[in-house]
Design a protein that fits this description.
Layout (H helix, E strand, L loop, with lengths): L6 E4 L5 H12 L3 E6 L2 H13 L3 E6 L5 H14 L5 E4 L19 H23 L3 E6 L20 H22 L5 E7 L7 H5 L8 H13 L10 E3 L2 E3 L8 H14 L13
Parallel strand pairs: 1-2, 1-4, 2-3, 4-5, 5-6, 6-7
Antiparallel strand pairs: 7-8
Length: 279
Amino acid sequence: MELKDKTVLITGSTDGVGRVVAERLGAARARVLVHGRDAARGKALVAEIEAAGGNAKFLAADLASLAEVRRLAEAVRSRTDRLDILINNAGIGTAGAKRQVSADGCELRFAVNYLAGFLLTTELLPLLKASAPSRIINVASAGQQAIDFGDVMLTRAYDGVRAYCQSKLAQVLFTVDLAEQLKGTGVTVNALHPASYMNTTMVRQAGVTPWSSVETGAEAILNLATSPDLKGRSGLYFDGMRESRADAQAYDAKARQQLRDLSLDLVGLASPISKEQHS
């Protein structure tokens, strides 16, 4: 894909693999919308991209709040009339033994790793469709665990690893489901596990010794974002650079429908259902 003058939004791009992706896209003369919570880091990255001849803007938002996700979407719409690539990369890892909740009362990993991307993508779909052919990339993980729809918010048996793995599989279910909905629009959506235990803050906080580089993960993300081989291909899951298969639940139409209905309820886009009914 020719990237000059294309507009790309990368969530969680002030650090780790997202930062490398932003730098590479900036160097390729894409217009980069940098997202993060830390304004100082965001502005530093924008300055770095611009110093190298690129074009970048920083948009601040805390994805643990659905209101801030909506504000982020509005900020994107106010700054550009097109969006060629959306990379849902922001996330939090497995560290922490205590169950935490988002500003909206959802289990925190489910909220940040999955639900924020679900809402942001939904909000930006009109812009992506207007910019077609366009691409959505969901940065998931090989760490996957089937969603227990009887206790999605893990109120009865919380475990940080389980919470992370469930949220990452939710991203893949969303990918497969959305691909079906977007057929014929010119918008494709794919998910991937970029690399195992990259040298990121998330991995180090989990107490794991990194064994992959962020550059390796960035190459895999950029492959989905720009490779001509993926033109028109959608609903796929990649392990690094290779097309692969996710957990079986991702290919279960009933599970995808359950997740879609729950997600729409939680973000207020359908008849409201109390989160406690799903906890």
